[in-house]
Amino acid sequence: MASEYPGAAASFNSSPWRRSLKTAVSALLLEAGYQAADYMALETLLEMVQAYITEAGRSASTFAELSGRTQVMVSDVIMALVEMGTDFTAIPKHARRENKTIFLPPTQATQTPVSKILQVGEKKRHPPHIPDHLPAFPDPHTYIKTHCYKQPANEYQLVREKAASQKRDVEVALTRFIAKTGVTHSLFKDDKSAFPCKL
After folding, report:
1. pTM of the entire predicted model
2. Cα-Cα-Cα-Cα dihedral of 12, 13, 15, 17, to 10°?
3. pLDDT value at position 143?
4. Following CA atoms 54, 55, 61, 63 in sequence, which dihedral angle do they give, to the nearest 10 degrees?
5. How many whole angstroms separate alpha carbon 24 and alpha carbon 18?
């Protein structure tokens, strides 16, 4: 099933789903007696199979939702296939055919052992609904909630500057308060820079 199309390698490696589907379509073509296939013909068959599977899945999901369920059951898939005009009773016979191509399971990549020097605590195992091929949970210490506070400035000069700034702010605020609430007599009525300034 080699292809001579220049863009074949790029699209073939684009997604694992597409690669698996292409392998399945190629195996079905080999079973049917074909020895080679044109790239565009293979892509057309691939698009047809993908559209068929997508439509069957969408229909089955719709039947599940109409029944008030969130997960698809076998009965939903059967109803979707019947609606699409497929004879679902031929599926078991097709699965038990004699010259079928058997796909080997993907080889498991050996995982590099994590050094125990930097590990803190015991790692949690995956719950039953998470497949084992997914990465493990991080170390338990990463879940500990640690509050972060800004370190107080304890250098003498910074503390003195802050205290002086606060004292000056208090004096200005108090003076403005007294100027607003108390009676003042200005010598120069038109002087805009005279204290207290109008806010």
Report:
1. 0.48
2. 50
3. 72
4. -160
5. 10
CA distance 60 to 81: 8
DSSP 83: H
Q: What is the sign, positive or negative, of the torsion defined by CA atoms of 170, 172, 174, 176? A: negative
153 Cβ contact partners less than 8 Å away, ≥ 6 residues apart = 159, 162
The structure tokens 């691939």 sit at: 46
CATH classification for the domain delimited by 8-95, as one of 3.90.870.10, 3.30.420.10, 1.10.20.10, 3.10.20.600: 1.10.20.10
**Encoding tokens for residue 160?**
């003195």
122 half-sphere exposure, CB direction, 13 A CA radius: 3
In the chain, which residues have pLDDT < 50?
1-12, 199
What are the structural domain ranges in the chain? Answer: 8-95, 153-183+195-199
Check whether the bond before 196 is cis (ω within 30° of 0).
yes
Among 185, 151, 55, 145, smallest CA distance to 196 is for: 185
pLDDT at 171: 94
Per-residue pLDDT, 7: 47
Q: Is 183 helix (H, G, I), strand (E, B) or coil?
A: coil
